[in-house]
């Protein structure tokens, strides 16, 4: 667990659930592009804590392959509700004491614009954007 909210937040693919915690998968997926459509703004994408699952579901409606598919294929600790973290979920992860493997840049589910999406650089401890066509690993999270 890397984040504990002071008050529950809306979460889930429809934002109908409430959650208090975020946890990160213990390992990362292989490097992949953010989406196979690298020049499209996916509608319904947000940056707030709790929106990563909704963002990831939206990505899967606008992409036929990419980071969202890798994140949702994660199975760890008996859990299968993993997704790409939103921009603010990435920032919460950065503020935590979680350690990371040698690969230090991971995709998130929030977009900057139609050609760029946010990810996290753990060497620099900052959220930054990168071209959606760049191949980077996925570090899935889940809310509960």
Describe the structure.
The chain has 144 residues and is an alpha+beta fold. The chain has one domain (3-143). It is built from three helices and six strands. It has helices spanning 52-62, 67-72, 87-95; strands at 3-11, 17-24, 105-111, 116-121, 126-131, 141-143. The strands form two sheets. Strands 1-2-6 form a three-stranded antiparallel β-sheet, with helices on one face. It has a three-stranded antiparallel β-sheet with strand order 3-4-5. It is globular.
Secondary-structure blueprint:
Layout: E1 3-11, E2 17-24, H1 52-62, H2 67-72, H3 87-95, E3 105-111, E4 116-121, E5 126-131, E6 141-143
Antiparallel strand pairs: 1-2, 2-6, 3-4, 4-5
Relevant terms:
about 140 residues, alpha+beta, about 20% helix
Q: Outline of this structure?
A:
The chain is α+β, with helices and mostly antiparallel strands and 144 residues long.
Mean pLDDT: 91
> What's the helical proportion of residues?
10-25%
Distance between the termini: 10 Å
Give the C-alpha Rg: 13 Å
Count of separate DSSP helical elements = 3
Strand content: 25-35%
- The ordered H/E elements are EEHHHEEEE
Regions with little confidence, pLDDT below 50 for 5+ residues? none
Shape: globular
């Amino acid at each position: 667990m890397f984040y504990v909210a002071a008050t529950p937040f809306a979460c889930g693919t429809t934002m109908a659930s409430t959650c208090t915690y975020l946890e990160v998968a213990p390992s990362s997926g292989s490097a992949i592009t953010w989406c196979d459509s690298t020049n499209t703004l996916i509608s319904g994408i947000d940056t707030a804590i709790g929106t990563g699952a909704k963002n990831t579901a939206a990505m899967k409606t606008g992409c036929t392959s990419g980071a969202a598919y890798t994140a949702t294929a994660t199975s760890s600790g008996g859990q299968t509700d993993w997704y790409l973290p939103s921009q603010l979920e990435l920032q919460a992860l950065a503020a935590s004491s979680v350690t990371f493997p040698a690969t230090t840049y991971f995709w998130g589910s929030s977009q900057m614009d139609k050609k760029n999406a946010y990810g996290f650089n753990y060497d620099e401890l900052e959220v930054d954007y990168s071209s959606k066509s760049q191949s980077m690993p996925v570090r899935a999270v889940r809310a509960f």
